[in-house]
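Researcher: We're teaching a course module on how sequence relates to structure. For the next exercise, students receive a sequence and then see the predicted structure as tokens, so they can try to spot secondary structure elements on their own. Here is the exercise chain.
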Amino acid sequence: MYNFEFEKPSTIADAVSAMAAEEAQALGGGQTLIPTLKQRLASPSKLVSLSGIAEMKGVCEADGGISIGGATTHATVAAEAGAYPALAALASNIGDPAVRNRGTIGGSLANNDPAACYPSAALASGATIETNSREIAADDYFQGMFTTALEEGEIITNVRFPIPEAANYQKFEQPASRFAMVGVFVAKYADGVRVAVTGASEDGVFRWTEAEEALSGNFSVDAVEGLSVSGDGMISDLHGSGDYRAHLVKVLTKRAVAAAS
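Model: And here is the predicted structure for the students to work with:
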């Protein structure tokens, strides 16, 4: 690692102030940032830990939805998000116990890894990402691989999820990392169905709109049967080709619909 300053504020206001320093970097659970620092792939002048901010932790129900603080760990989401079972189940299967007890929902969404699980849940749920300065709809938040609408120095303080009538998340894991080679989150609301896919596309998480239209008219596995996903623009690596990932998108969507039904 390179030398850096370390600050652990106890309030959002203090964190925002600390982030104003040149080349300062927010630190959530550190599951991506710390390995990056160890490999000397990043050299921030200051790390601002968000783990000491109590107002950014916890899960609560409000207005027909569930609200999760940005510094809430995956383990806490798994244990306390029972009002949204599909989201709790997703959190319970991220990484291993060490990762789940350190990693945070805000850190995951801020990093927007193309194989992370939470982006699919946020996008499929039509979640709202709250920061220290504004609210961002999930449809506007995700802007490509490792790219989001966050501005420099902006911190995710809270994430609001509307609770659907039915939902399920299916993940085909890369066994060593437990990241998603492909993950599909399906959420059925009164005004329609949303389907979000992670792990597959070179552009990061995306909505499969063709499946959404079919499932909104008929929420059953049969509605997906005749659909297909192109392998163009899909990730192709030693774990699987683009065509293979495209095939998995359909397979996992059908499994998610069956489980949600």
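Model: If you want an answer key for the exercise: The chain has eleven helices and twelve strands. The chain has three domains: 5-49, 54-162, 166-260.
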